[in-house]
Amino acid sequence: MVFIRRFREKDRTNDGLAIHRTQMAADRTLLAWVRTGMSFISFGFTLYKILDAAVKVVPSAVPLLKVKPLGLLLLFMGTLPLAVGMIEYYKTSLDLGGTRKEALQSAPFVLGASILLLGVILSFNILFRLPLF
């Protein structure tokens, strides 16, 4: 994977450095989307598991609160914007002259894809009550 982009002599011009700064800004933006998505996903799944356990122990403790829709809502609030952020990052990387391989193998994109996959797996866990392992 390409984690550090080495500057060639022609990249040290003002235009080359501006492109590099813009790429770093896109990296930071995607990482902010990843952080926000991960927060929603972890909070939604944790809240679902805690409330699900509370309903099993004391069924009348939380009579009006629907546990499954609340957990799924928070999981979707994390995964869908993360997917949109990843698409925008990919488009920005290509617009800046990067290759598809560079965009897909960048560290922020790989991290975003892994968190997105985690969100999808946890959503299926809530929907179908599948064991994680």
What does this structure look like?
The protein has 4 helices and no strands. The protein is elongated. It is mostly helical and 133 residues long. The longest helix has 44 residues, at 14-57. It has helices at residues 14-57, 67-95, 100-105, 107-128.
SSE inventory with pairings:
Blueprint: H1 14-57, H2 67-95, H3 100-105, H4 107-128
Helix pairs in contact: 1-2, 1-4, 2-4
Provide keyphrases for this structure.
single chain, mainly alpha, 4 helices, elongated
Number of helices: 4
- Global Rg: 20 Å
- How many individual β-strands? 0
* Helix-strand pattern: HHHH
Amount of beta strand: under 5%
How would you sum up the major sheet?
A: none
Would you tell me the structural class of the helices and strands? mainly alpha
* End-to-end CA span: 29 Å
User: What is the general shape?
Assistant: elongated
- Which range best describes the helical content: under 10%, 10-25%, 25-40%, 40-55%, 55-70% or over 70%? over 70%
Mean pLDDT: 84
Spans where pLDDT lies below 50 across 5 or more residues:
none
What can be said about this structure in brief?
The chain has 133 residues and is mostly helical. It contains four helices and no strands.
